[in-house]
Input
Amino acid sequence: MQDPQRELPDVVKALTTAPSPDKQLEAIRTYFSDDAGMNHPLCRVKSSRGSRDDSILGIYQWYRIMSPELPLEVVQHVWNKETNTAFVEVVQTFHIFLSPLKPHQTRLVVKVQLRRDPDGLYRIMQQDDFYQPEDVAYLVVPPLAKLILAAKHAGTLASNVNAWAFQTLLGWWRPRAGKGE
Output
C-alpha cells in the first residue's frame, strides 16, 4: 500500500472477498509481509519467516471455502501514520456453506500493524481480529449466540445488583448526591 488511509477498505475486500483463489493469493502476497503474524479468536499465527505463505494464506483460504459468499462492508477505518497502526470496523455475513442455519451479520474490529518495506510500500506485519463473544458463536455455532447474550445480560444484572448492595449496605464507591456536577 502506498496510502493506507485511502487503500485499506479495498485491501480488506481483496483479502476476504477475492473473486478467485489466484486473486486471493496475489492479495495475501501483496499486502502481508512474509513474516506476518495474526491473532483471531479461533486461530493464531506467530510472526516468523514464511508465516504468510505457511499459515496466514491457509486461514484466508479456509475462510472462503467455508463461506464462499461473504458479503462484507468496511464501515469505517483510521490509520495512525506515526505508529503505523490502523483500525478497521467490518460488518460481514459469514455462513458455513453446509449449515442449514440462517446466516447472521457479525461485526468485528481489525487492528493491523503496518511496516514500511524497503520498496516504500506498507505491508501488514500483524493482524488482530476483535469480536464480541456472541459474534464468534454466530460464526461457528449460531445457537450458542443466544446463550452468550443471555449470560451477558445476567452479568449486567449481577453487576447492578452488587453495586447497589455494596453501596447501600457498606457505603463503598457511593457517589455523594449533588456533588461533582
User: Anything to note?
Assistant: The chain has five helices and six strands. The longest strand covers residues 104-116. The mean pLDDT is 95.
